[in-house]
Amino acid sequence: MNEETQTVEVVEDDKQVAAEPEQVTTDPKDKKKYTDADVDAIIDKKFAKWKAEQEKAESEAKKLAKMNAEDKQKYQLDKREQDLADREAEITRRELTAEAKTILSERGLPIELVDVVNLADADSVRDSIDAIQKTWEAAVLKGVADKTKGSAPMKKAPVESGEITKEQFNRMGVRSRNELFERDPELYRKLRG
Fold first, then answer.
1. Does the predicted model carry a pTM greater than 0.70?
2. CA torsion angle 7 13 15 17 (round to 10)
3. Which residues are within 8 A (CB) of 155 and not within 5 positions of it... i.e. 6 or more apart?
4. Contact present, 132 and 116 (Cβ < 8 Å)
5. Rounded to whole angstroms, how far apart are CA atoms 30 and 53?
6. In the chain, where are the structural domains located?
7. What angle do CA 173, 177, 179 make, to 5 degrees?
8. Which parts form a coiled-coil structure per UniProt (predicted)?
């Protein structure tokens, strides 16, 4: 009996879920809209790429047709070696990029700086990052120095209230302004504007 009750409850739950209307929100910002010109440009670009690949394959086939068996074998071997060298260079570049990101992260530098790192070999990666770090630290120190630099605050408000100009008032510190307010509230209000 207990099992029947559970089954009924499950069925009722399913019906409730199905009875609720599904709300599908389609945000117009999420959909990409292309104009005819955009589509034409994309198709032209893809077609040009395909055509270049076809021409390259055709010219290679013509080269191979003109060669004798020994030349074909040598050409194919050279091509394989070049492909392997390209793949190896790509793998090395990826490894050096990962290493550079790790070093930048360890040194507290933004990993976005990996784009300016020399990825020729491991030594040049380290040398590049050292130079970047020195430049980064110098820029940070300069920025901090510029932020902390400011005009020297006035020590005291001038004794005679007639000597204070609007410019002097603007350069006064809070303490000096308070002293002026206590001595001459009318002048303070006048200078404050």
1. no
2. -150
3. 176
4. yes
5. 34
6. 39-148, 161-192
7. 120
8. 47-74
